[in-house]
Write a structure and sequence with these properties.
Elements (H helix, E strand, L loop, with lengths): L2 H19 L6 H6 L3 E4 L3 E2 L6 H16 L2 E2 L2 H10 L5 H5 L3 H8 L3 E14 L4 E13 L4 E11 L9 H17 L4 H14 L14
Parallel strand pairs: 1-3, 1-4, 2-4
Antiparallel strand pairs: 4-5, 5-6
Helix pairs in contact: 3-8
Amino acid sequence: MSIRLLLGAMLVAVLSGCATQRIDKDRSALQAAAPRSILVVPVVNKSLDVDAPNYLLTTLSVPLAERGYYVFPVHTARTVLEQEGFYEADMVHAQPPAQLAKMFGADAVLFVTIRRWDAQYAVLATTVTVDFEYKLFGKDGTELWQSTQAIKYQPQNNNAGSPLASLIVAAINAAVVRAAPNYMPLARQANAQVFITGPDALPDGPYAQKR
């Protein structure tokens, strides 16, 4: 066998091996449930920012509604849960999804966990990071869909002046971002990628506008 034929056979074998390793997520449960309404419960926070859950909660309804689902008002839902004695997000996430869905008459319940919501400072650069986990359960308690998303942002120094000036500007920018990091654009971007544009995005809901 010539070297060209041998390399060709090896390439086919490698490509075949890669193809067999691809795993498509099973969406049969989601398709069978075909949820029309989604209850978004309070967000569990594993970061050190105590305000992060409230900020993230306000960003979840819009992309789900844009995808074509009815979303129960998140603040009203939280108030109802508190009246039922569920004051902490961890307590809510510990409840059976079927029980929560029945309480509101929802077709599905969305649980979101913040894994990271921080800004790491390194003198000349500050990296802002958000990292979320999403899980959607049907009204019978079946897990229908899950996804994760992490987004990082580091301000770029576009100063074309002297190296010293560039260093000074970079240090100032890093300090400003560290003092008041803006997480909301990253949170909205993460939600959009998970629910709408990403490879594991939710399918169109019953109220989706025809494209």
